[in-house]
Amino acid sequence: MRVYLPGPRGGVLIEDTGYFLEILPHVKFAGVFDVHSYPPGSPNKPDLNLRMMPIDIVGCLGVVRVQRLTYLIVATLPVTSIGMEDVDVEVVRDCLFVCLDGPMHPPDVRDHAHPCYDLHQILTDGSIMYSKMQDLSSHLLSRIRVQQQRDAACFPTPRTDDAGATTAAHRLSEGTFEFVWNDYILAPLLQLRDTLDEKHKAEFNARSFILRVVQGFFGAAEVELPSGKVMLSVTSRREWGRAGTRFEKRGIDKYGYVANFAETETILRTADKIISFVQVRGSVPEKDHWTGHLKLSIAQPVQVVSLRPFMLHMHDLVRMYSAVHAFSLLSNAKDASLAAEGDLNDCYEALCTLGQRQDDILAKASTFERFDVSKRIMLSSGVAGMPKAIGKDVEPVLDRFGATVADIDSETGKYELQSEQQGVFRVNCRDCLDRSNLGEYSISAAALNKELSALGLPTLEQSDELNRVHRKLFSAFIRDGVVTPNQTIENLEAGRERHMQAALHDRQKNRATEVLTGQYENEEPTPVFNWVRPTTLTLDTISSWLPQAPAGLLGALPVVHAEAPTTPALTPTDSDSFSLPAHSP
């Protein structure tokens, strides 16, 4: 895949396996762009000349408008591949910001003077990943359901009265909405694609003009056991709904999105089976404000300010995972240094109790547990003994929730679902840092031991190599609780770096994250892309857009003001602006 700078008529030209897109600024309207399409087999081709500079890229990440200039963001080579059998994940290491409505911006994007400098830092910090082989934004159970829907589409069953079935299938095939990190900035390209008929849309989708990414971590390794080879992988996906820097964003917003929310999936794969265990983490789902590390102000009255968003959040978890066990690692102490944590924990439990009293679904599908890990460490042999202590404590809930287990068809490689995970642990401490990391590692180890025993394989305690790989995968993005002198020094250094980051860079990085995910309150209008050649548009699409479009703008979309961080399918209205709803339907 290549991008050509400048295009034959200015603007930019993108090509992927014989399919060209030429993007030109509209002659009259700022932020509006004409797109010429040259699919394979098209009688017309763009004019390529020696003055154009071709750059190899891997895909388009989206379009953003900053300081009244519009930038197309493309991921460039090289990328870091984390490849194994049937798993091919690549990490974005660099990206190009192509200015679409004027000459290339003079400063390089790595220069602090460039308006997209902080955006570039976020997209190239090693946490942005994609896969062209599988949906990296979805856990195994979700991917199996998509596979089942596609199989059903090939062998149709009698039509039902479920009006939402088609929409749900389409959403799943586009990835898990909450974890597609660049969903907001992809909106102009998605809306452009959705005006195509099915034939041209299929050709468009076969390319990387739309490259969905997640933010988080992926690691995988193979282990040789006496019974054969197994693969172990860990994936962490961060939700973008209330994304931001850790010390700038805490708590919950009015839509039910919480800060620092992430889904962590541990997968064990043998020659004929695949097993997935999922857990989540996030800030305490209530509205508060911290001053420094000790002073906490909780918005009052809690039942008025925090209960409704709390219930939205818990309902989302029940919808996605069937049931939720809130596992709070906050301190219960009431002394001076930890009193704020005790108050926060009391508030969390009170919200859970109120929610269960007022809602039958939460009464049946949610539970709350305190586990004061700080106190347990002081009363026991230290941090090293915590994984076993946590594993023993959560064993009854693990037995109830289980894991997702599927057989692997030896001929087709498809998954045949045998059992589904029936609930999820929601782990938290104050800042979703070391204690949450320890909690997730411990729960993953306990769940993995159960599944290994069920398969007749050695457990983590019985296989040094399997235990080493599991610990290594988790310690790549968490602290695993095994404290050595070197790790003590690393922890001190990491703490110092966190506070330096918070003091010097967090505010700019937080703003850039909000721009990237559509949360910035002063967001500039979303760019509009229009096909110049209407031959690829359906009649229904043309008739639906023409009455609302300004003169000369076929298919123009209304300006989007991102009051809430989602970008579902858009429908034009009589006005030229609207606010996005809080949650996708």
Summarize the structure.
It is built from 16 helices and 22 strands. With 585 residues, it is α+β, with helices and mostly antiparallel strands.
Defining key terms:
16 helices, alpha+beta, 18-stranded mixed sheet
- Domain tally: 3
Major sheet = 18 strands, mixed
Structural class: alpha+beta
How many strands appear in the DSSP assignment? 22
Query: Into which percent range does the helicity of residues fall?
Result: 25-40%
What's the alpha carbon Rg, rounded to whole Å? 25 Å
Shape: globular
Q: DSSP strand (E) fraction?
A: 25-35%
pLDDT below 50 for ≥5 consecutive residues: which ranges?
157-172, 477-485, 534-585
- How far is it from the N-terminal to the C-terminal residue, by CA? 34 Å
Q: What's the overall average pLDDT, rounded?
A: 81
Total of helices: 16
InterPro entries: SAC_dom
GO cellular component, one term: endoplasmic reticulum
GO biological process, one term: phosphatidylinositol dephosphorylation
Protein name: SAC domain-containing protein
